[in-house]
Amino acid sequence: MLRRDTEYVLTWNARNHSWLVRPIERDGNQIVQIGPGSSDLVDPAWSLGADLDD
Questions:
Q1: What are the angstrom distances between the C-alpha of 2 and each of 5, 29, 48?
Q2: Could you give the CA distance from residue 17 to residue 30 in angstroms, rounded to a whole number?
Q3: Exposure winner among 6, 19, 28, 49, fewest CB in 10 A?
Q4: Is the pTM of this model over 0.70?
């Protein structure tokens, strides 16, 4: 489920033809990924969109 108080980066996965969503936080001028490691696949963005209205 996407959280309203969290920033996300969307990445296009050409192999699977899907968007991947990764939670991030800002540390000065850098963007730091939080949650799964950068080599791990995360849930496709379309699978999380249904929970936005909650």
A1: 9, 24, 6
A2: 28
A3: 28
A4: no
The pLDDT tens digits for 14-38 are: 888 888 888 888 888 888 888 765 5
Contact (Cβ atoms closer than 8 angstroms) between residue 2 and residue 50: no
The 3-class secondary structure across the chain, one letter per residue, is CCCCCCEEEEEEECCCCEEEEEEEEEECCEEEECCCCCCCCCCEHHHHHHHCCC
Q: Where are the domains of the chain?
A: 7-51
Is residue 22 within 8 Å of residue 35, measured between CB atoms? yes
